[in-house]
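Hi U.,

Before I forget, here's the chain from the pilot set. I'm dumping it here mostly so it's searchable later in email.
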Amino acid sequence: MKFLLVFDFDHTIIDENSDTWIVKCTPERKLPNGLRNSYQPGHWTEYMGRVFAYLGDNGVKEDEMKRTMTTIPFTAGMVDLLGFIGENKDLFDCIIVSDSNTVFIDWILKAADFHEVFDEVFTNPAAFSSTGYLTVQNFHAHHCAKCPKNLCKRKVLKEFVDKQLERGVSYTQIVYIGDGGNDLCPVMFLNKNDIAMPRQGYALEKKISQLAQDLNPVQCSVLVWSSATDIMSYLKLLIKE
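Structure:
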């Protein structure tokens, strides 16, 4: 009996958006209008590449970025939840599927000593260049019209589950924990034994309830959370059954 926990990162594990938090490192703690207005829908990663170039141009170094990023607060109850999952790793496989990047997630999880909780992290690859500039790339290419160009979370989840099946690992239930509009696509992949846990008041919850109103509900069960304590209560019931 094994359960797969799938987490989004921004506004789910951490209570902020890591990509917008980095702006605190800029000289005026804000981006110039031209740069801020250069974002085009579906092309967030390219936009962040320009933000990182701006930081590099302004002499913002890796250690300063790291210091800033590790001050992001975790969502209420999340520290306890991740501790609980860490203590029950024999029952839970745990992955992150996020539109952030490898550098930010790595810094934040390691600073809080949570990197061992997660079996894999699927996010946009980032690295510092020889000149000290942070660079970021799209996670993969895909053909899903619903998702941003750089990442279809459904494709990631399906490929992970398929790969695990090949290794002889099948899951009693998948629990998907997220908040954003781009979490709807993987939620549509879940079946009736699985559960989606959208964060209360965020885009994912609104999209799921809109589908129900349109008489086209998602197949899986839905349990809304406002604090990670709600998620922990559910997981404790799950392993008691």
